[in-house]
Hints:
Helix content: 10-25%
CATH class of the largest domain: Alpha Beta
CATH topology of the largest domain: FAD/NAD(P)-binding domain
Number of domains: 2
Mean pLDDT: 95
CATH architecture of the largest domain: 3-Layer(bba) Sandwich
Number of strands: 15
Distance between the termini: 36 Å
Bound molecules: flavin-adenine dinucleotide
Amino acid sequence: METIEADVVIVGGGPAGCSCALYTSRAELKTVILDKNPDVGALAITHQIANYPGVPTDMSGEALLKLMRDQSIQYGTDYRRAQVFGVDVSGDWKMVYTPEGTFKARALVLATGAMGRPASFKGEADFLGRGVSYCATCDAAFYKGSEVAVVGVNKEAVEEAQVLTKFASTVHWITSNDPKADDAHSQDLINQPNVKHWSRTRLLEIKGNEGGVTGVDLKPRGEENGRSLPVEGVFVYMTGSKPITDFLGEQVAFKEDGGVVVDDFMSTTSEGVWAIGDIRNTPFKQAVVAASDGCIAAMAIDRYINSRKSIRVDWVHS
Ligand SMILES: Cc1cc2nc3c(=O)[nH]c(=O)nc-3n(C[C@H](O)[C@H](O)[C@H](O)COP(=O)(O)OP(=O)(O)OC[C@H]3O[C@@H](n4cnc5c(N)ncnc54)[C@H](O)[C@@H]3O)c2cc1C
């Protein structure tokens, strides 16, 4: 797979990431946004946003986000849908890994928001990476011909379950509520021949052994006894309010509350890496605050990249 080079790679296409991209693109820096899904971030799911300065008060978060995204694209941002599963920030080039390819950047911006959650189902943490996954786009091909479970009812769960239908023999879709009857994507998923929908059902436990996941225990509402399903993979799509940092490992410093530590310029403890928006776990999580963070980081990045351009490395002599 090809490696794509850029001045700035921004992970996350919410208001923080799009604002940052707008400024870096206008500063003539080659900018790539890698966004897992434009429909699942905090602004994307906000029904109405009445307090973002300058836009009509009945605007939806989704519509505002589209305006922001389109504006950054208009100025040259390369917006791509891709879920980042790892980074390596140890060298001058910051490496960013996705199922769609590898990206390398002189400046890396972390803008994945705070819609994450700790692993909370019994067995989830034990089997993470050994059958439990949060990324079907990354891992679906490992489950060719196997039975898998998808847990969650949001848009991301539906889209990722659709990806799995192309590989798995059966996709067990477990939802604690019924999806909306007028949600065409959910209904389309339910109608796939290899999807078994477990509506109004709770996931009780993910089971396994040294080899990884071997099954799940469920409790359908109204049934007296639970059930066990022999699945090899469990894909969990539940949201919470924890900064999404699982793809970072220990490569930047975190606060006790899980937010990424930054200075006044949104610079993290790792040189060449910035963090903006809800990933910082700011006390006031607002779209305008996230956008402001993006602007600050972009200006700092412009200064950083330009100052490095003028530095001559000592092994070049002329
Ligand atoms: C229900 C709700 C209502 C709200 N109402 C308001 C309001 O009325 N006014 C207001 O100002 N604020 C409101 N907020 C807060 C506001 O939406 C957030 O503060 C703001 O969206 C944070 O922006 P962000 O860019 O940091 O993160 P987000 O908007 O969450 O965007 C993060 C992006 O990162 C992507 N991403 C995540 N992980 C990865 C990965 N591994 N790889 C690639 N991409 C990834 C996501 O798909 C998403 O697109 C509300 C929030 C919620 C949840």
